[in-house]
Amino acid sequence: MNLIILTPGAGAMYCGNCLRDNALVTALRQAGHEVLMVPLYLPLTLDEVDQSAETPIFFGGINVYLEQKSTWFQSAPGWLHRLLSARPLLRWAAGKRASTRPEDVGDISVSMLSGDTGRQARESRDLGRWLKTQMRPDVICVSNALLTGMVPALKRELGAPIVCWFQGEEPFVNSIPEPFRGDCWRLLARNARDVDLFISPSHYCADLMIERLALPPDKVRLVHNGINLAGYDAPLKAARGARAIGFFA
Fold it and tell me: Cystine design at 175: which of 102, 136, 180, 204 (Cβ 3.0–4.6 Å)?
């Protein structure tokens, strides 16, 4: 299959989204699939080979912030947008520990989920047009539901079915102050109608999001997250006689 996987990078931080998606892309490529992994916001920080290293970063964190704060910047020249999405500059910006706490990014969250009517609509269009120059995908995978604002543009440009993982949206959105919190849930429910399939890592998460987003139960499937145990197997067997896994997320 030809797959496109969109993953939000966390810059200087280790992130569950990044680690899971990178491991998945590695396994899919080893299984013979063609996979294009596209980083969003910031570069990925990993303890394995970065499967997105050769791909441009879209929705660059600096551009997303400036588009939120400046009406002028939404129509700034393309060369300036590309310059501000350079990996070295984004790594430097990430090292400044710009805030991603839910209580500080309510306005940007609402705008991102608004898609074509949000302040970052240009980023969706740029991503869709670039992807059209790459492979023709059988499926597009979106790493978490907070990215679903870009789904209409992706469907419009590529016409491929969209699969979205659930990954910690509920506690994040519930930490956003009102009125942004209510707007986020409303927009998530609206965007969910354009997603073809959701994948949940647990029954609890599936039931919660089915209720929150008014989803048909058959639109959500359960797939447990995998953990790469390469390099840990022998020491654990020697020490304990069996595998012992500690997983912090």
Answer: 102
The whole-angstrom separation of Cα 105 and Cα 119 is 14
* SS3 label, residue 42: coil
Tally of CA atoms within 13 A in the half-sphere of 174 that contains its CB = 7
Distance in angstroms (rounded) separating the CA atoms of residues 44 and 50: 7
Scored b (16 or more CB within 10 A) or e, 34-72 reads ebbbbbbbbbbbbeeebbbeeeebbbbbbbbbbbbeeee
CA atoms of 166 and 182, how far apart (whole Å): 19
Cα dihedral across residues 155, 157, 158, 164: positive or negative: negative
pLDDT band at 112 (very low <50, low <70, confident <90, very high): very high
d(CA 24, CA 35): 10
Residue 241 φ/ψ, nearest 5 degrees:
80, -5
Residue 84 and residue 60: Cα distance in Å, rounded? Answer: 7
pLDDT at 248: 59
